[in-house]
């Protein structure tokens, strides 16, 4: 393999990076030769003018040598450009989909990769599976100079963020916003405005960001998904997600609007 090919390499959920380079990057053809993989799953990712990219799952227990290290994908958030993070995210999602769709859910036959589409297909009954993406709404609710922020039991200590939840079958994203906010904190909102989106490969969400205005009700937390929620003045916020996440972008975007700085420069869309 040669040229500008790049390899997004995983083993047991961790990504492989070089330890002797300043920038975190996917492996080059030279790295690939150095690794000498014996048994690896290799899936084509993209074929662009700069060369092809591949998602690779190394066998369990594969040791990469001292010039390489295994790292959590989450640690990449904010440390590489969005496009680069999304390429790693695409790779991990395709590998997960490939691993979990090896047999037909209808007739039990072993599946095969579709010749041209990014799909797994059953050679017996022709049922096919495409990579799974789960749409998820994420909402910043404001009330004048206050923002409604909440924390989930699995958040890091002291961290508060926007509200989020999965879109259900048969539901519009707008309806999902109203339902999730109602379920999690029992307030009503209006004036929904679409903000932007972010692929979030943990394991396969597509985060759809909205700004919403408070329209009534008192905060009552559900106590399960949400362990605390409160209104915070935009200049006295608790610990919030970093600017590489859509939650962090929406919060900073709204702070800039309130500071009279216009719609901000780091917002998406
Ligand atoms: Zn089948």
From TrEMBL:
Keyword rRNA-binding on entry: no
Keywords associated with the record: Hydrolase, Magnesium, Metal-binding, NAD
GO molecular function, one term: metal ion binding
EC number: 3.6.1.22
Superkingdom field: Bacteria
Necessary cofactors: Mg(2+)
EC top class, as a word: hydrolase
Gene3D superfamilies associated with the record: 3.90.79.20, Nucleoside Triphosphate Pyrophosphohydrolase
Keyword Secreted included in the entry's annotation: no
InterPro entries: NADH_PPase-like_N, NudC-like_C, NUDIX_hydrolase-like_dom_sf, NUDIX_hydrolase_dom, Znr_NADH_PPase
Nudix hydrolase domain sequence ranges: 131-255
Database matches in NCBIfam families: PRK00241.1 (NF001299)
The protein, known as: NAD(+) diphosphatase
Organism of this sequence: Desulfoprunum benzoelyticum
């Amino acid at each position: 393999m040669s040229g500008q090919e790049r390899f997004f390499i995983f083993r047991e959920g961790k990504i492989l990076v070089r330890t002797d380079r300043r920038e975190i990057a996917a492996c080059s053809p030279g790295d690939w030769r150095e690794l000498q993989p014996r048994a690896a799953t290799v899936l084509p990712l993209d074929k662009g003018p700069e060369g092809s990219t591949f998602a690779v799952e190394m066998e369990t227990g594969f040791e990469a040598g001292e010039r390489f290290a295994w790292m959590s994908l989450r640690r990449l958030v904010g440390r590489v450009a969005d496009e680069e993070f999304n390429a790693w995210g695409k790779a991990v999602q395709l590998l997960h989909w490939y691993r979990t769709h090896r047999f037909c859910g209808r007739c039990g036959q072993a599946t095969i990769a579709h010749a041209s589409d990014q799909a797994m297909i059953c050679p017996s009954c022709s049922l096919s599976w495409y990579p799974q993406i789960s749409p998820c709404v994420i909402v910043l609710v404001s009330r004048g100079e206050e923002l409604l922020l909440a924390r989930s039991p699995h958040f890091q200590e002291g961290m508060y963020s926007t509200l989020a939840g999965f879109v259900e079958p048969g539901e519009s994203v707008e309806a999902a916003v109203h339902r999730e906010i109602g379920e999690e904190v029992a307030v009503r909102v209006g004036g929904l405005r679409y903000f932007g989106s972010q692929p979030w490969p943990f394991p396969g969400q597509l985060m759809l960001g909205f700004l919403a205005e408070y329209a009534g009700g008192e905060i009552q937390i559900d106590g399960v998904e949400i362990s605390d929620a409160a209104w915070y003045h935009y200049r006295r916020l608790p610990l919030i997600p970093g600017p590489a996440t859509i939650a962090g972008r929406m919060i900073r975007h709204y702070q800039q609007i309130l500071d009279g700085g216009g719609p901000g420069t780091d917002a998406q869309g």
